[in-house]
Amino acid sequence: MLGRTLDTLFEADVSVMYQAIAEHVVEKLGLQTDSVHLDITSFHVDGDYAQAASDDINTIKLVQGYSRDHRPDLNQVVLELICENQAGLPVYMQALSGNTNDAKAFAEVTKHHIHCLKAAQNSRYFIADAALYTQDSIQSLDEQKQKFITRVPMTIKTAKKALLALDPTQLEPIDKGYSGHWIASNYGDVQQKWLLINSEQATKREEITFYKNLEKDLTKELKQLNKLMSKPFACEEDANLAVDEFKKQSELLGFEQTSISKAPIYTHRGRPKKGEKPTGYSYQINATVFTDLTKVKLAKLKVGMFILATNDTDSRDLDMAALLTHYKSQQKVERGFRFLKSPEFLTSSIFLKKPQRIEALLMIMIISLMVYAGLEHKIREELKHTDEFFPSMVNNKTTSKPTARWVFLKFEGIDMLEFGEQRFITGMQDYQRRLLQRLGEMYESFYS
Predict the structure, then answer these.
(1) Banded model confidence at residue 52, pLDDT cuts 50, 70, 90
(2) Where is the domain boundary, 295, 317, 348?
């Protein structure tokens, strides 16, 4: 029965169905979203799930990929989630194949799904981590007149130049140990502002290990280079491509000279006979390297530093503090992932007969998260309008912002006794009654 229900949900298109439900809930709760947040995670699955080439191309592929739950040996399914910022309510979900690349998945969303998101249209900013910051994605968002806030990958040349050009005296205080400096950018032909941010706390934490790891990282790069230099290549072009790729990835080494040597291959060991022709040739990389002090300086500058980008270049409300606050609210979607992966939810691993059923199960999981986030928002909104009375997780204190999980725990120990037609509720505390009164008659009726 459950399996057939999951099959029916899949056939109805779980993403479209969930979006319709979410739009209704957003309207019902009266949420006024300033931003929506995009992120991605993975769940490992048990079982082989062998899929033939003739399988439905619209069905997700349960294969190995980058594992966020540290099980690279298992196949997995990827979940893409968009949450609104006020209650952390999921407004869009999409199940993806296990080997899905974050940047490609984000680009797909920006091109084909943003216009469908009612919550996104009504919100001011679309926010995501550095995987969103590709030329295709930011161009797509800008063309749709959607304002974005995202982190800039430090691998971009322009970002490296910006950090190298930064004078520490240019940094202005923002708030709580953060300082920043604005610069203009036209990356991807999109007019935008970059905020270069330094975190004092992160700097202190990371500086301790920077110098300790510097020699270790240099040795590691040298070992990788030696391994690459000992590898034979089938052609000169392959060898050149390999050394160019290594140069791009090298964070500390500079290259004084590189060359490709050509060596003949014979069918036997030892010295070839006079006049014997080789069966082919192999190519090897030769390189002379040095410690690049500019790269070391850049690596040091990255300690405690990050860059935020936005195409909202005209708003006077978006100062440094507001931009940082908007980006830090990305934690709401990450908090949703923690809920889905918590031991209490029992989804550390998944096994169902078909990938289609796993996709449908993911929708049910997200609906559970939606109910949890919606209830927590309602509780906090009601407590906001009264004196604090609900017990805090900190001893002998009260709070107006309890988590829904904490509220559930504090409602344990309430029992119902029945004598004939009479019913009695026992174990009810005053703070529990007050909360039920704030939530309304429907909630009170369950405990009356």
Answers:
(1) very low
(2) 295
* Residue 360 shares a structural domain with residue 414: no
Please state, in angstroms and rounded to a whole number, the distance separating the CA atoms of residues 130 and 152: 5
Are 7 and 79 found together in one domain? yes
Same domain, 350 and 254: no
Out of 48-62, 64-78, 132-146, which region has the weakest mean confidence (pLDDT)? 48-62
In this predicted model, what pLDDT tens digit does every residue of 352-376 receive, in sequence order? 667 888 888 888 889 999 999 999 9
| Alpha-carbon gap, residue 355 to 113, rounded angstroms | 23
The verdict on 7 and 84 lying in the same domain is yes
CA-based nearest residue to 22, from 102, 96, 87: 87
Comparing C-alpha atoms, which of 396, 392, 426 is closest to residue 407? 392
The mean predicted confidence, pLDDT, of the chain is 84
Indicate the number of domains in the chain. Answer: 3
Q: Say yes or no: 27 and 124 in one domain.
A: yes
Cα–Cα distances in Å, from 86 out to 332, 362, 374?
Answer: 9, 23, 10
**Separation CA 120–CA 124 (nearest Å):** 8
Strand 125-128 versus strand 422-426 pairing type: unpaired
DSSP-assigned states of every residue in 341-362:
HSGGGT-SSB--SSHHHHHHHH
Q: Taking the model in full, what pTM does it have?
A: 0.73
pLDDT-wise least confident of 109-113, 215-219, 410-414: 109-113
Which pLDDT value is given to residue 309?
96
- C-alpha to C-alpha distance for 193 and 314, rounded to whole angstroms: 10
Residues whose CB falls within 8 Å of the CB of residue 369, separated by 6 or more in sequence, listed in order? 90, 336, 339, 340
Q: For residue 2, count CB atoms less than 10 angstroms from its CB and return exposed for 0-12, middle for 13-18, buried for 19 or more.
A: exposed
Residues 232 and 117 in one domain: no
Domain that holds residue 436: 382-445
Q: What pLDDT score was predicted for residue 353?
A: 65
Does residue 120 share a domain with residue 6? yes
Is 176 contained in some domain? no
Whether 369 and 437 map to the same domain: the answer is no
Identify the bridge partners of residue 308 per DSSP, sorted by sequence position.
151, 195
Q: Could you tell me the CA-to-CA distances from 420 to 316, 424, 427, 428, 448 in Å, in that order?
A: 67, 11, 20, 21, 16
Digit-coded pLDDT (tens) for 147-182: 999 999 988 889 988 888 888 889 899 988 899 999
Please state whether 113 falls in left (phi above 0), alpha (psi between -120 and 50) or beta.
alpha
